[in-house]
Every structure is written in C-alpha cells, then in structure tokens.
Amino acid sequence: MANTRAAELLATWETGLAQAPSGRALLLHRAARPDTGGETLSSLPVGEREADLFALRRALFGERMQVRLECGACGEDMEFDLDAGEFARSLAAPAEPSVRVVEDGWEIECRVPGVADLTAAARQPEPRRALLARCVVSAVRDGETVSADALSDALPEAVQRRLAEAAQAADPAADVTLNVSCPECDAATRAELDIASYLWTELDAWARDVLLDVHLLATAYGWSEPEILALSPLRRRYYLELCADV
Questions:
Q1: For residues 159 and 147, what is the distance between their CA atoms, to the nearest angstrom?
Q2: DSSP code of residue 113
Q3: Helices (H), ranges, 155-194
Q4: Quick one: which H or E segment has residue 83?
Q5: Is 240:213 a contact under the CB 8 Å cutoff?
Q6: What pLDDT is attached to residue 246?
Q7: CA distances (Å), 82 to each of 60, 155, 183, 189, 237, in order?
Q8: Residue 156 confidence (pLDDT)
Q9: What is the model's pTM?
Q10: Tens digit of pLDDT for each residue in 178-189?
Q11: Which of 7, 91, 99, 236 has the fewest CB within 10 Å, making it most exposed?
Q12: How far apart are CA 29 and CA 141, in angstroms?
C-alpha cells in the first residue's frame, strides 16, 4: 500500500466506524474514485461500483484474495484464493442503462438499478416493491398505462421475475456469485462475494495494525502520527524491529 495514502485511508476508516454497511461501501467507493462526487457515485450501476472496489482492493492489498466458505452439504471449511485483478477486469464491461420486458400483455421499461436505488429500497419494509417503484420508467398493460405506485400489486410474479432476470443480464457485475466445489464431498456451494464487506474487513484490520505501529514508534522516538505515516511500510517495520531489540 502506498504510504502517501495512509492518512487518507485512516480517515476513511475512522469515518466508517459509525456507518452502516451501505455508508461504508460509499466511503470505499470514494476512496476508489477520489475525484468523483458522492452524488455521481450513487447514481452509477451497482456493477460499476463492484468493479471499482475490486480494483481498489488490488491497489491496496494486492491481487490475492483469500476466501473461506462452509460447504452447504457437509459443513467442511473451504479456503481458496481469488484474483482481485482478474475480477476487476472481468467486471469492467458497462451496464445497459435500461431494460424492457414484454410478457402477458405487459410492456415495462425500467432503469437498471443504481447504488442509490438499492440503498434507498433496502430501508423500506418491502424492498422489492420500493425498488420497482423507483426504477420503472413506463408500464403499459393491454394498451393502458399503469402507475408506478399500483404496479407492484398488479404485476404478475412471472413478469416481476422476468424483470429481475433482465436487470441482472444488463448489469451482470452487480451480483458476484461464487460456485465452489467441496474437496471433501464434491458438492457445489454457491455464495455471494460482497466485495465492500470483504474490503472493509481488510481495511479495519490494516488500520488497527497501523495505529499500533504509530503508538509504538511515537512512544519510542517521540514522532508525531503524520511523521510516522510518512514513512514507507518497510522503513516503519525496520524501526519497529529496532525497538524490539532494545
């Protein structure tokens, strides 16, 4: 990790401690795109944010991501490596801006959900209904327009399913799902990879380690936090080893 960003990342971590997961994801996205405003970031398709976070993870902590899963069939603890750079490249394709479904007399056009849409819908008692109301552009049934408010009650389950499938196809990077074969029983386990949560856990561990380094070096040498953070990780580790030898 570049030492020039250490202070900024510590500030991101400190702010995120009091945030919900959605707030932490936005903070991480801002770290990935520091020159882009928060409103713009919230309007991006979810898949674009995921690609940005995989790229950030690669820049901060390297290519190798260690993942642990429990086999859904036999309960075996599985551990394997993923390539953050490969994920970032594979998710880089832009999402389609909207989808259109024609089925059972319905003609519906919806925006592909953005980050802000999912965040707002998750706060509602019925997230799927809220998401549909936010993203629908137009809805026509047998030639007559149906309002967004009435749509979720009137729309058949099969059409809702088609809409969900179309949205996923338009922004495939929004849902990163792993399909892992168990080495013990050979059963396949599917699991969603939440890169925002994964990256936050890593950032939290890194921040606490860095603050411990600052404490030890400040105690030993009387240096300030900015002076210690200005050191490269290699030089900081060398000074810590010297402190341990005293």
A1: 16
A2: P
A3: 157-170
A4: strand 77-83
A5: yes
A6: 61
A7: 15, 40, 17, 16, 27
A8: 86
A9: 0.85
A10: 888 888 888 888
A11: 7
A12: 39
